[in-house]
Amino acid sequence: MTAGYNTISMGTGRKEFNPRKERPGLEDYLREAGQGVLKQIDGGAKSVDESVLGNFMASHFNRQGNLPGFFPMIDKDLEFKPATSVEGACGSGSLSLVSGIKSVLAESAEVVLSMGVEVQNTVKAVYGADILAYAGWFKNRKNGHAYFFPGQFSDRAGAYFEKYDRDRARKGMAQWYANAIENARLDPTAQEYHNTHPDPYGLSLKSEPNGKVFVDNLNYMDCSKVSDAASGIIIASEDGLKRIGIDKKDAVEVVGFAQVIRNITEDPTELTELKAIKTAIEKVFENTGLNINQIATVELHDCFSIAGILTVEALGLAKPGEGCDFVAAGNTKRDGIVPMNTTGGLIGWGHPTGGTGVHQAVTIWQQLTGKAGNAQIQISANRPYGMTINMGGDDVTVTAIVYKQGE
Amino acid sequence: MTYDERLQNVSILGAAGKMGSGILLLTSVEMTNLSLKPENKGKTFVLNAIDLSDQGLAGLFPYIKEQVRKIAEKQIVRLRFAYEDRTDLIENSEIIDQYIFDVMNIIRPTTAMEVAYRSGLIFEAVSENPDLKVKILSQIDQNNPNKAWYFTNTSSVPIHLIEEKANLKGRVLGFHFYNPPAVQKLVELITTENTEPILVDFAYGYAKGLGKIIVPSNDIAGFIGNGHFMRDGMHGLGEAEALTANYSWPEAVYMINKVTQDYLVRPMGIFQLMDYVGIDVMQFILNVMNPYMPDENLHSKILDQFIEMGIKGGQMSSGAQKDGFLKYEKGKAVAAFDPNTKTYISFAEFSEKCDLALGQTPDGSVAWKSVLRLKNKDEVLANFFSTMKAMNSLGALLGTKYGSRSKAIGQKLVNDGVAANENDVNTVMLTGFFHAFGPINNYFD
Fold first, then answer.
1. Which value, in Å, is the radius of gyration of the alpha carbons in chain B?
2. Nearest CB partner across the interface for A126, out of B87, B90, B92
3. B90 and chain A in contact, CB less than 8 A
4. Is B393 exposed, middle or buried (0-12, 13-18, 19+ CB in 10 A)?
5. What is the ipTM of this complex?
6. Beta strands B343-346 and B332-338: pairing type?
7. All domains in chain A, ordered by first residue
8. Which residue of A has its CA nearest to B90?
9. For chain A, which residues score pLDDT lower than 50?
10. Domains assigned to chain B
């Protein structure tokens, strides 16, 4: 993968965001991210064999379907070429990546433009919650919370509090938020880039969840953002890289991937475990022969801080019930054992649902090729790999990918 | 009759007016919430929105719909529980739409006052005309067999006067909302010596249901809120008149307005506030109050002069500010009226000169909006006013004098028995007028 590009993640937190004023639409984000990628490769759109777009709910947020038709709007040289769009809720972005990877592996394409987009600020949060709830089983919607997914993960946090320790868990969750803000402040495209709060950790820790106005076990700092953004990246074979004039060192190699799903019509058997995420991680390590000790950095799906902590446990970095302590001890900070979400993740950078998986890949590409600017972390020779974990719904559609800088 | 039963059939008189429409909104939401309680399922709730103006009534539903949507969006967590037995309502949007429908479904807009004959509770929010109020309430009570309760929103007319003349012994009280009722937390509660305790209990319960803070006021014309504001406004008019010895009237208005906003850290200057309330409304209230204040002359020739010229202020039905002492563009004052030329003179023509004459604002000047949020508000204000008192500039002198006068007015309200204590006066000004500090303080001593 190479030539990644992220637009700004727009929404509350950005100084320029004003919900009362007209804002860029789906077309603008796609155009900016798509052209941002194509400018980096020789031949531009002419070099692209096919395109694929991850998106979750443009049909509702933007009243727009048939999304492949937007690629020629990005560049006319994409017209009359193959393009598809894929959907797996907030895991759509990674489905776009996997689709491109498979095309390259199948040798049906050598250069694939993979993108992800979501423009969500078209509706107020109370109605956006309805739309995002389609990532769950609709038959559960009636009994679900007004803010359906915060409700789902609040229940997970509640189970974690009950089974282990609420105070320890809340400290880990507060540290997760603090890390997200610290990292987002280093990336000008991040939604929390302008955040200047002197004490994000204290802010989150002191904000007791209030079920009367929101959910019982999460505060607003525990939640990812409502975001408008698009990301794009090129997936290419070695021949493809030559065609677009990219040196391997400026690309990341996809070492392996695993894509799994869990039955959406069944409730999780254990609320304190992300079973599909755990399975995807096990499979990707099995496929690549790698283990967590070789991973330099992870971009994981912290739609809620508790999801971050449960994923830390799924990665095997901490025992069940101790992921919160692992995070609280600073091990996932940018200078920790395994820096995570180094540009802020879903809580700090933003969560343009259908675009998040591609954004994660772009961040790993930036970090492993030394293009992360102020957000750059040290990548040591004995831990040269990067990893993305992207989730759709409540642990339903999950993709894990492992990357390494090209040689 | 229980609280819920009392609210099953309610009428609001003057429902299309500025205050009436706000009371209608709050009451319709409270009644709808009651109707959604399991024990009230199947019961009919009726809210008559009575007004003389067909045009005004036609504008009610768009207003109610928009406002109820905002309320429903904020209360979606609660509403999902309220509608949990409705299997057809699944998404937030469906529940919100249903709630809006349910609220609007109990409102009956009409110009026919006769519908109030069946109500158990009647809100009166017609214009501040004592004779009109008495006439309407008498007529309704003579035809209403329910021994109805009457809540009047008057901001100045003594309640005992209405009680006596309309023959409503014990069944009327003053329930004075502040403008706009949907936003302002304060309600002044005024009872007479005859008011039945059961009405008072209901009033407190109803205020709680609406999320309002009650401050009791004695039944003396103007009560606490207008008791302070009218005298405060009169002081502003007097100060401006005094300044005309050296400045033109528009300049004087500009200066006093600036002093009362910036030097007194208020949400708006006194002339803007008089425009907001309406110059004609202010004159009307003063006329109601004046006969009851033997030791004062609450009458302003300046107000008479402006009303004669047709300059009245007040608000348009959209909520936008009409021009009065000041001219407004996008809600911001940009010019002051000159009675001599009968034109508005732009601030740009004289603001520099006036600002220079007032002198610098006190060091560390604080804006009203930011002060409200400060945890150490009292300390910041004490420092600010302490600096101001030590200054010798015209602005600081006018500001200090104004602050002292405001305090004296507050103390007079306590001394005259209008307010039970200093705290009540301060609460009214803090919650009804959004001041950052109560008038009875030590800042200007």
1. 23
2. B92
3. yes
4. middle
5. 0.92
6. antiparallel
7. 2-123+226-250 (3.40.47.10), 139-222+253-405 (3.40.47.10)
8. A142
9. none
10. 3-217 (3.40.50.720), 225-431 (1.10.1040.10)
